[in-house]
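Dear colleagues,

As part of the handover before I leave the project, I'm documenting each prediction I ran so the next person doesn't have to rerun anything. This entry is a single chain, and its sequence is reproduced below.
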Amino acid sequence: MARRLKFICLGIITGLMVIYTVAGVLIVSGTITPVRFYLDGVYLGLLPTYRAGQKAKLIDKKSTKNLTFNYNQQTISLAGDGLFYQSIDKSFNLYLENFQSKTWRQRWLIYNRSLITNINLKPVLDINLLLIINKLETAYSGSWHRPQPAKLSYDPVKHIHLIPAKDGYIIDEAGLAKKIKTYLLDPQPKPIPIPLKYISLTPSKSAIQTGLAKATKLLKSQISLKHNQKQNNLTNQEKIALISLYKTIDEDVLDEMVSAKKQVFNQSPKNALFQYEAGRAKLFKPSQDGFELDTLRLKEQIKQAFIRATDGQGPAEDIIIHVVGQVIKPDITTLDSNNYGIKELVGQGESWFAHSIANRVHNIALAASKMNGVLVAPGEVFSFNKYLGDVSARTGYKSSYVIKNGKTILGDGGGVCQVSTTLFRAVLNAGLPIIERRAHSYRVSYYEQKSQVGLDATVYAPYADFKFKNDLASYLLIQTQIDKKKMHLVFKLYGTKDNRRVKLSKVRIWDQSPPPPPIYQDDPSLLPGTTRQIEWAAWGAKAAFDWTVEKNGRIIYQKTFYSAYKPWRAVYLKN
């Protein structure tokens, strides 16, 4: 019996020694954490270090305590969320770095001590100093003078001239961090006084002379950016602005310059446009590749050209920078134009716009041309605003009467909603799912000519768009036709039919309200004594119609389109 007990005790001791040794090797190698290991009071001993690190991130505490600052008797408080952390994750990583830097003997001693003594890591205070300084500079904007560097400038009158530096103050980062830590440890803290540091940016005389010499050389050199047939020459103002009196080149100015050049060289790809003729899609406008500027490469190219133009010992020379970037292919290319499945008419919509002024007719024709020949891929969501683009005088639109803030006023692009309304009707008749449609706030007479009320769709980027999805197996070709004499617009959608049938109910109208009295507005462009009506009185009303799409005897789409119109007064123009 005694002998048996002896063997059992020996086995237990041997097992413990094995466990002790294996655990020690794993801990010393950094594979698992020590035995009595805690992170902010949470026991994580004998865990794989990666698992302990994952749990450390979960224990991290964002502080909700506010930070209060004071400068020149003005006190502000910043919300603590995100400004500083009680970071156990950072504490754990620091512990690992320190542990790995020790010798095997030192690690073995740490392991042995952890058998009887706790290792309890406390959070490290992690202050987001950059964010705090940004918020303080915004809050105290104008409270102290910031330093401004001296720089050279150029204009046709003064030519090259020096703009002197201005001394000023910046926030002392090290001093601020120290005061924040003291504040957080104080149970009854007082507002933190903002420490400032005086900065003088006055350049040396030799730096100014060197800068002037560079400016003289730059004015004798031409630096040009070129890509294909497009060329952009740096102006004298741009070249001189690159000169820094403190370093090789002004990086901030260079960044702004490169960003501006994106507007010059970047080109969006353009899809091929088609028209339906003799049962097929025929190309009438080829696709065009787009281009995206490599800004990092251009920045380096301009810097090297600047150094070459200012540091060269020889005579001034013209420098051409060949701009590089990424070619962007369009979605719809000129190739394979006969493989899109454009076989037949799948839907059509029309509208009339009698009594429209000439500028409105012009805008309708221009907006309709943006949609003409567009191919919509299977599964694609078509956005009216995307293809319409910018609506302004710069893009060819003329002033016409638009409804804004309850008034009829002249504005660029009046008439564009005639186009979106007509497309809405074509999509309804084609039985395609409509993703986004918004009715007008008022009943507009143009949209009720030979049509029921409620079949309109307003657009106004970026707030209101008209979107639909091409859920056909084929591409969808949009084709527009406008008759300016008959004041008639037609949208035709071509593709391949799939046996769907569309049912539109009659429009239901309720809650009608009479229009307000008419108003008269001055229009100096009219002949003296003449009056012209541009808006017709319309009753306010709520309207709805049901739209049902069936395919092979099964309903695939069913929706009720609602419109709520405010009463609208007649509007007359007079001189």
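The domain at 205-328 is CATH 3.10.20.800 (Ubiquitin-like (UB roll)). Residues 36 and 118 are 5 Å apart (CA to CA).

All the best with the project,
I.
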